[in-house]
Amino acid sequence: MEDLKNIILSLDINSEEKERLLKQLKAVQKTIDSAEFRYQRTIMDKAAITNILNASISEIEKQKAVIEKQKKEATHRASLDSIRAEIASMRTTKDLEKITPLIWLELNILNIPFVRSGVVLVHDEDTEKLGIYLATPDGKSIASLQINANQTVFSQKIFNSWKKKQALIDQWNETTFLEWANSLVKLGAIASAEDYLMSNPIQNLYLHFLPFPQGMLYVGNVNLLTEEELSLAQSLADTISTAYARYEDFNKLDAAKQQVDNTLKDLRSAQQQLIQSEKMASLGELTAGIAHEIQNPLNFVNNFSELNKELITELVEEIKKGNTADVDLLANDIKENSEKINFHGKRAGDIVKGMLQHSRKSEGKKEPTDINALCDEYLRLSYHGLRAKDKAFNAKFETSFDETLPEIKVVTQDLGRVILNLINNAFYSVTEKKNQLGEGYEPTVKISTKHNKGTAEIRVYDNGNGVPASIKDKILQPFFTTKPSGLGTGLGLSLSYDIITKVHSGNLTVESRKGICRIYYSITFINFK
């Protein structure tokens, strides 16, 4: 620019023209300076942008690597979670045969190179019992062996490595494969070594066995696995261990449950035997009472039978005499006596039927029952039974029955058993107190019924010693008894409680204070006769 300025000054032109050219030159210089500045700025901006882009690309590459790593880890976790869930869901030994295709699938998902896979499970360390499960190259289960380690050379080698908690890596060739196939034939795992080798072509193979607490994971590949691949395979083995531990826990729980079920079955059987024994024991106590109760109708039957025998003799004589008026009278008398014989015969039959029902196993069938008659019958049977056993026994008994109480559907023999048990206990209590106090004490037992708004209430009262507060909460428990050894099983009240609360959905309540004991229970009924 300086050269151009000198040239303009040397031109032979007037001063005004020179001034104009110098101004133009100055403007051009300014434009060139501005363009130069912008150019340099552009170069600087380009370098900055390039740096920013390179930094961004580098950061994106880093994030991509992190995402790829996270994706790979997530895939691995999902794969391991999947096999953990599948194995944990197995319940039988047969289910374990599914484990080899499952391992094959997970090895593929984890991108661990392999052509063979399987698992060896140590079922019993002491006896060296192994379960070997193998898969074909396409993932199908090929063999399931249950053997002892010493049955083949290689299975012993696997067991020894497992016991030392060491990985086992071995290389097989055609000869080794043939030896293994022949051993499988001998063990009955496969039918033919030739078929096995045809379906699984012989090849040089590296066998990798990774240990876990219950066995070894097997991965076979044409090349040795890298450290990273072995690490992934070991993580799969550890996952199998966790899941298999759950499988073992389930089997232990299942075995324990089976044992508990068997024990419960035995206990229920024993309970039924005890219940039947209690029923027969109570029936034994009733024997004398039954004899007394059945004697009355039998006496009537005998008496009226004898009377009819005499009347028939008279009837025959009057017929011979042709005295028709007396014949009619005698015939009517015989008829009335026969009806009485029939009535008392049925009464005796009812007593026998009731006792047979009492001794039989309850079928739980509810039938319309006269509760008042049931209470009265068992009260008298209990009283006369105790009188027959102990001639010195004597007690006052009273009844108060609500005549408005309809017949209700109950399990008759079960409810009769409850009534009998409570009355027997009441008589026992007053007898014990009588022996303590002697004269001046009047032992009294009362039984009453009440119809109360759709509920039948039965109350048994005695003025014996009562139930001490310290044992009041225990008397309904099985096998708890206050009677001396040999006089009580401790099942009467507990069975009575179950019959009322469980069979009839009722309530059984004990009220007691010194000198008085009241036991009452209520049954809500809907179905009348």
Describe this structure in words.
By secondary structure, the chain is of the alpha+beta class. It has 11 helices and 13 strands. The longest helix is centred in the middle third of the chain and has 95 residues, at 227-321. The chain has a 6-stranded antiparallel β-sheet with strand order 3-2-1-6-5-4, with helices on both faces. A 5-stranded mixed β-sheet has the order 8-10-11-13-12. Helix 1 runs antiparallel to helix 2 and helix 9 (371-389) packs across helix 10. The relative contact order is 0.05.
Report strand order across the widest sheet: 3-2-1-6-5-4
State Rg.
52 Å
- Please report the number of helical segments: 11
Low-confidence stretches: 525-529
- Residue share in helices? 55-70%
Overall 3D shape: elongated
Mean pLDDT across every amino acid position: 77
Helix-strand pattern, N to C?
A: HHHEEEHEHHEEHHEHEEHEEHEE
The chain-level structural class is alpha+beta
What is the number of beta strands? 13
Give a quick account of the main beta sheet: strands, pairing sense, barrel closure: 6 strands, antiparallel
Report the end-to-end length measured between terminal Cα atoms: 135 Å
Q: β content, as a range?
A: 15-25%
In short:
With 529 residues, this protein is an alpha+beta fold. It contains 11 helices and 13 strands.
Please outline the helices and strands.
Layout: H1 2-10, H2 15-88, H3 99-109, E1 116-124, E2 129-135, E3 141-148, H4 153-163, E4 168-172, H5 174-187, H6 193-199, E5 205-212, E6 215-221, H7 227-321, H8 324-359, E7 367-369, H9 371-389, E8 396-400, E9 408-410, H10 412-437, E10 444-451, E11 455-462, H11 492-503, E12 507-513, E13 516-524
Parallel strand pairs: 8-10
Antiparallel strand pairs: 1-2, 1-6, 2-3, 4-5, 5-6, 7-9, 10-11, 11-13, 12-13
